[in-house]
Input
Amino acid sequence: MFDSGFGGLTVARAVIDLLPDEDLVYLGDTARYPYGPRPLDEVRGFARQIARFLVERHGVKSLVVACNTASAAALDELRAELEVPVLGVIEPGVRALVSATRNGRVGIIGTVGTIGSGAYQRAVAATGADVELRCAACPGFVEFVERGETGSDQVHILAERLLAPLCEAGVDALLLGCTHYPFLARTISDVVGREVVLVSSADETAFELRSLIAGPAPSPVRGPAAGTGRHVFLSSGDVGWFESLGRQLLGPELGRVEQVSWT
Ligand code: DGL
Output
């Protein structure tokens, strides 16, 4: 599993809880974080490099792209190139979103890269669900979370401005299409209204991974867990920072973090 940094730990948490006996290798590309404002081509290059590294060096039997921006930029290429099954966070989140709405008006928020890629818009259309979709990029949200500022007046004011079009559209289900946004759930909910269902991709992705692993044949990764519940964490940036902030976000399973270099 990989993410641009810490946010994908929300997906890692869900996977560890649901599949405790599976071995997990998590890579946070904190040296090149954030991905959200970068050109999609550049993010695609990063994703391909990390995917190859995890398959070749760590022998992973399946890959979860636990980053919305990287999923939006590279999922199709990774699926075509890799010999292991690849799961992103977009499709599982979208399935949960369209089943959560009652009035048929849904919203999706994400980074500039994710929303600009059109990947979520295509994924919603591909479900065939009869829904009206409103999307909004939320530049600045990730930075507030990284500073640990999830309930300040400033983030509330920014949320009011960015989420206004979704409120006006009357959405009743809103997908948090960025790994960091679950940490802002309270602020987002205060702004859009408690009656709007907030959908996060983390749990849905873990359920989909479980189906992939435990699902019916033929599946190259099917069968009982081959692992022993060993969790390995890698970071391309400052490992001390990853250990301390990562442990706060994920919990005690995050032990020593190993350094990865892209030279
Ligand atoms: N992980 C990214 C995402 O889910 C958010 C952080 C970043 O911009 O790198 O889109």
Observations:
- The longest strand covers residues 105-110.
- The longest helix spans residues 40-58.
- The chain has a mean pLDDT of 93.
- The chain has eleven helices and ten strands.
